[in-house]
Structure formats: C-alpha cells, structure tokens
Amino acid sequence: MLLHAPEARLVTLLRGYYRSPLCLSSRNGERAYGTARVLATSPSGLRRHQPGHPPSKRSLTTTSGQPPSNIAILGGGITGLVIAAVTAKLHPNSKITLYESSDRLGGWVHSSVVESSDGPVVFELGPRSLRPTTLNGYHALSLAQQVGLEQEMVFTSHESAAGSNRFIYYPDKLVRLPSPADGVPSVLWAMLTNPLFEGLLLAVFRELTVPCRPRGMVDESIGGFLRRRLSGAKGLVDNLASAGMHGIYAGDVNQLSVRSLVTRWWEAEGKYGSVTAGMMKSKPNKYGQNGTTGLHESGEQMVGKVLGQKARASSIYSFTGGMQALPDAVASTIRRSKNVDIRMATGVSGIRLAKDGQSIQIKTTNNEPPRPYDHVISTLPAHRLAPLVPIPSLALIPYTTVMVVNLYYTNPNLIPQPGFGYLIPQSVPFKQNPELALGVVFDSHGTPGVDNAPGTKLTIMIGGHYWDGRKDDEFPTPEEGRIMAERVLARHLKITEKPDRVLATLHKNCIPQYTVGHHDRLQNVDAGIKREFGGRLSVGGSWVDGVGVNDCVLSGAFAALTLGKGRTGLELALESRDKVKAMLPDGFLL
Ligand SMILES: Cc1cc2nc3c(=O)[nH]c(=O)nc-3n(C[C@H](O)[C@H](O)[C@H](O)COP(=O)(O)OP(=O)(O)OC[C@H]3O[C@@H](n4cnc5c(N)ncnc54)[C@H](O)[C@@H]3O)c2cc1C
Fold it and tell me: Which residues line ligand 1 (CB under 6 A)?
C-alpha cells in the first residue's frame, strides 16, 4: 500500500530515530516517549520497547482482557481528536465513533483565512501559539511532528522581539517585563526599579517567615494567597498577577484557585511552610536529578535532536496557515484509520447507562434510536456535559465569555514597541480601559510566518470575567466589538488608521474557570462518574487539568491510554504525578 505523505515522513523519522546512537543507548535505561509515539507504534510495540522488556503489569486492555470493542468519543475539538487518533491506533479492532455537533473539527482551535488588500491573512479566533518545551508542550510538539506538521511549524525565537518583549499596560503606558534572556543582573535591576515589582524581592525573602495557612483551609484564590504570603509586594495581585490571569484564563485573580492553577505553590506551603523554601528544596527533583535539563533531554528523545533544539531556541510556535493545521492534520490521520467513524453535525443529547450496566446509550440530536457503546469518552465542555448526566457538580464549573477582535492593517509600521503584545491588569483605571479589554496580541510580530501578509496584524480580547453575569442580549455585537477594539488601540497605542480587515467574534462560555473549590468539584464529578457509569464513562478536555492546547493534548492522551481500566480521566488533576505515571505505560513522559 502506498504511504500517505505524512506517514512516509513519519516512518523516515522513526527509522532514523531508532538507528540513532541516542536511541540505542537509551534502551539501556528508561526512555521517555509520548502521545505521538503511540500513533507510530502498535500496542505490542509499545510494550516491547520498554527497557529490558519486562512483562507489563499494566495491560492496554480492560480487566476482562479485552479492549472495549465499541467506543464513542464526544466532541471533535483537539482533545477529542487526540483521543480518537490514539485510540484508533491502540485498539485497531475496536469500532470508534466520534460525535461533533458543529460542521467543523477543532473546537476553539479555529483559524480563519480572510482576503485582505494584501492577499490572504490568517486570523486566529482561538489559540494563536503554543509553548514548545514545557512537559505538556513536548507532547503536543511530538504529536504535531508525527501527524506530518514538522515542515509547517513556524517558530518564534527567544531572541526575537516577540520572544523577549512582553508588556503590561500600567498605569497608562506599556511597561516591558524583564525576560530571562536579559541576564540575571538586568532582571534583578528591573525588579528593583520597575514599579510593577515594587517590594517583591524583599517580600520573597520575608515569605520564608510568614506563618503557614490555617489548618483546614482547603483552597484560596490566587489573589488571596499572594496577599497573605507576599504582603510587602505592593500591587502584585492587581498588576502582575491579574494581568497573567487575563492572559491565560480571561479570569479574575481574586476568584481563580491557587490550589488548582498554581498547585506547586499550594503544595510547597503545605509541605515546607513557605513557597520560597519549597521552591528551593523541591525543584531539582521534578524531572529527575537534572531538573529541567532532564525534561529537555526527555523531550529531545521524543521529537529528535533537530526539532528538539529548534524548539528550545524558541518561545512559541504555530503553523503555516495557523493553528487549525493541528486539528486538521490529526483529523487526516484519523480518517486514514479504518476503525473511526466521524459523525459531523451530530450533537449528543443524552448519555445513559443501560439497565444491565453493560453499555452506555448515546442519544443524538438527529433523533436516531439510541446507540449502545461499551465505553464513552466525553470531551464536551463541562457546561455542555452537565445537562446530559446526573452529576450536579459539573454545572458548578463556570465559563467566561470573550470577544476576540482580529484586525489587519496594510501599514506594517503601526506597533510602537515590537513584542508579543500586552496584558491589561485590573489595576488600570476605568477611564484607561472602559471597553474592559484584557490584552492585545501583536500577531504580526508573534507569529509572523503563518501567512505572507506584510502589514500589521493585531488581536484584542475583551470581556472575560468582567462580563460575568451578563445576559445574552448584553454582550456587544461584532460591530460594537470592532468599535471598542479600535478605541482601545487608539488610546493605548495611538493607532488611529482604519484597519483593512476586521473580524469580531463573540465566544460564549469559551474558557473554563478553575475558581476556588475547583479541586473539590472535580472530586465530586469523579465520584459521580464512577457512581452513575460504573467505569464506562471517562472525560478529557480543558476543564480537567489545564486550559491550554498542550494540556488538552495530554488530557486526551491520558484518557486514551487508560481506556477500559476504570479511570475517569480526572486522575490527572486529582492524583499525584507519581500515581498518574503509574497508571500509564512505562516510560511515558510525565
Ligand atoms: C479565545 C481563546 C484563545 C485561546 N488561546 C490559547 C492559546 O493561545 N494557547 C493555548 O494553548 N490555548 C488557548 N486557548 C485554549 C484552547 O484553545 C482550548 O482550551 C482548547 O482548544 C479546548 O479544546 P477541547 O477539545 O478540550 O474543547 P473544545 O475546543 O471546546 O471542543 C469541544 C467540541 O465539542 C463539540 N460539542 C459541544 N457540545 C457537543 C455535543 N452536545 N455533542 C457533540 N459535540 C459537542 C464542540 O462543537 C467542540 O468542537 C484559547 C481559547 C480561547 C477560547
């Protein structure tokens, strides 16, 4: 059979890799691999490649010795696609059905190509870039490589303006954040002189003597935690921390959970009585004796030396044509497998355990008779899954709404200071930000290679937690969004030119909020899934263990690799890394 182009590349890559000294030597010790390795390897191969070939205690099948033969995956966003691709490979004899309610795959990963006066321009409606060299980042990078996207990757180097210049708007101008690339003396100097960091260095040392949280405190907001432990750092919460939370979650620093989102701080305080002490003591062990060097070595084993080194030199990456390339390429891989049926425009409207407990019945909006499945993996957002199952805690996971406004100008010289973009913290006075904007991304600097448009491309995110509680008719229309975005740019960046193209899109309930108590809510959901579905339902996606695409890739991989073993998928967030690692095949990078 002729190999499709990406598969041919994949085989060549693997061949080269398995012949390399790196691979041969690593067979003597534990070798890391990831999601994508599964795509390229048979289940038996997965076991055979373990160091010393020990008999695996953790089989890839159910306790009955058989993998589920009939599997449903709900949702065709990046998480659902990863699950479908990995499951199709691991269980070639199982029948897999993927249900997607809309007429496209990718979920929030959505690039739109718009015709401008300069030709086609890629507008990102959702994510615009990925970090390549975090732990989860290596899994996504490896996935992208294995689905044939290595040549399409567009890297932004640490040395570039976008790689080293990130700003915060404070109080009425752009303030550059120090970058590790500046070197230690410059970073220290910035921390001593930049008003954003006022009192921070001293507060970090004093933190060693701040009493531990009261017994019985089970969670706290990030804002509350920082105020309690770093009280000397004036404005830290309302400036730096709130800006950071706007950038990732469009969320409120005073509501988001420190336990769920900055778990290492929370655990360090619990274990060592101080975050500073905890960081000093625990860091070297996180990825083995070599600290983060160990992570990068493992990452390089996953993706190979060439890509690994390119990734390490970069702060972010995207793809030619935009982020949509990733779900598209994973979907192409799935379509080539014989055992996956993708059902587009087919929303799931009911999920019920059959009376005999031997299957889950899936009802769809197409009014067909319910279909039985041995196992169902849901990647639906929590608020979409909530009305379909009797697990009340799901409905308690809040989501924010964001308006994304993409603008393209033919003038290439509009951005006053080159960089990735800027975030707008809560401390900015209302008159400086009446539109309630969260941040502005300089796309033409951040991800310049995704298209050939020579002008200036910007994206503005508006709303988020500021809009909590609004009714449907209280959100701005796309036209109002355009006007708001242009006003923000005129006030903050003095850009008064008319854009050549604008696309304003309201994303209702797009980002899950891990607010205080999220961990407990997940525990209740975990118990509910076990109670109501007896090991036949599991979940993955952005409300589980991180909202980023990289996190979703790992969540999807975990759901697929533990399929049929009675896991809910929430173990990723609820159990320790060591326990989660023990649930996965040997050598999986975690
Ligand atoms: C504006 C924005 C910017 C972002 N920026 C970044 C970024 O720069 N970097 C980054 O890493 N991450 C970013 N993210 C986060 C990231 O894009 C998402 O968390 C991730 O794409 C979620 O993927 P998912 O598959 O879990 O969920 P989704 O993308 O929500 O996919 C779920 C799928 O289920 C379908 N569905 C819903 N209900 C049903 C039903 N009843 N039956 C069948 N199907 C159904 C939906 O149509 C959808 O396709 C951003 C998100 C947004 C919204």
Answer: 74-80, 99-102, 107-109, 126-130, 347-348, 379-381, 384, 402, 404, 507, 510-511, 541-542, 547-550, 552
What is the spatial distance between Cα 140 and Cα 404, in angstroms, rounded to a whole number?
24
Whether the predicted pLDDT of 467 surpasses 50: yes
Handedness of CA 519, 521, 522, 527 (dihedral sign): positive
Q: Give the mean pLDDT of 519-548.
A: 97
**Which of 81, 98, 108 for a ligand 1 pocket mutation test, highest count of atoms within 8 Å of Cβ?**
108
- ω into residue 398 within 30 of 0, thus cis? no
Would the pLDDT of 20 be above 50?
no
Atom 8 of ligand 1, residue of closest alpha carbon: 127
Helix (H) or strand (E) holding 43: helix 43-48
- Kindly indicate the confidence band of residue 290, based on its pLDDT and cuts at 50, 70 and 90: low
Helix intervals (H) in 304-446:
305-312, 325-336, 382-385, 443-446
Question: Could you tell me the distance, in angstroms and rounded to a whole number, from the CA of residue 240 to the centre of ligand 1?
Answer: 26
Domains of the chain: 5-59 (no CATH), 78-104+334-395+515-583 (3.50.50.60), 111-163+399-512 (3.90.660.20)
Query: What is the CA(129)–ligand 1 centre distance, in A?
Result: 14
Q: Say yes or no to pLDDT of 488 above 50.
A: yes
Computed over every residue of the chain, the mean pLDDT equals 89
Residue from 11, 15, 487, 573 nearest 260 by CA = 573
What whole-number distance in Å separates Cα of residue 199 and Cα of residue 192?
A: 8
Nearest CA to ligand 1 atom 7: 127
Query: Residues 217-230: pLDDT tens digits?
Result: 999 999 999 999 99
Distance 109 CA to ligand 1 centre (A): 6
Mean pLDDT of 104-118: 98
Nearest CA to ligand 1 atom 52: 126
From start to end of 259-378, where are the E strands? 314-319, 340-343, 348-353, 360-364, 371-373, 375-378
Three-class DSSP category at 95: strand
